[in-house]
Amino acid sequence: MNTSLKIKKIGNSAGIILPKEVLAHLNAEVGETLSLVTTPRGIELSGEEPDFEVQMAAAREVMARRKRALRELAK
């Protein structure tokens, strides 16, 4: 898919309008959050993983419980 997008002024910010074909390709809907990652080739835009926040909460809990061990391993 090769699509040109125009940058528009939105209040004090700037934004782009994603065509419905792009939203369908991302498997995203209006109001959802997308993930943006910079890569050596440019920018990668993807739909968020449905369980990402659950996984991060579990990781934060483990890191909090094992703070001392992780600090030692980081040396």
Number of domains: 1
CA(first)-CA(last) distance: 46 Å
Q: Gyration radius, to the nearest Å?
A: 18 Å
For the biggest β-sheet, the strand order reads: 1-2
* Secondary-structure class: alpha+beta
Specify the oligomeric state.
Answer: single chain
- In percent, how much strand structure appears in the residues? 25-35%
Write the H/E string, N to C: EEHEEHH
Description:
The chain is of the alpha+beta class and about 80 residues long. It has one domain (about 5-75). Helices cover about 40% and strands about 25% of the residues. It contains three helices and four strands. The protein has helices spanning about 20-25, 50-65, 65-75; strands spanning about 5-10, 15, 35-40, 40-45. The strands form two sheets. The chain has a two-stranded antiparallel sheet with strand order 1-2. A hairpin with a 2-residue loop joins strand 1 (about 5-10) and strand 2 (about 15). The longest helix is centred in the last third of the chain and has 14 residues, at about 50-65. The model has no long low-confidence stretch (mean pLDDT about 90).
Topology overview:
Blueprint: E1 7-10, E2 13-16, H1 20-26, E3 34-39, E4 42-47, H2 52-65, H3 67-74
Antiparallel strand pairs: 1-2, 3-4
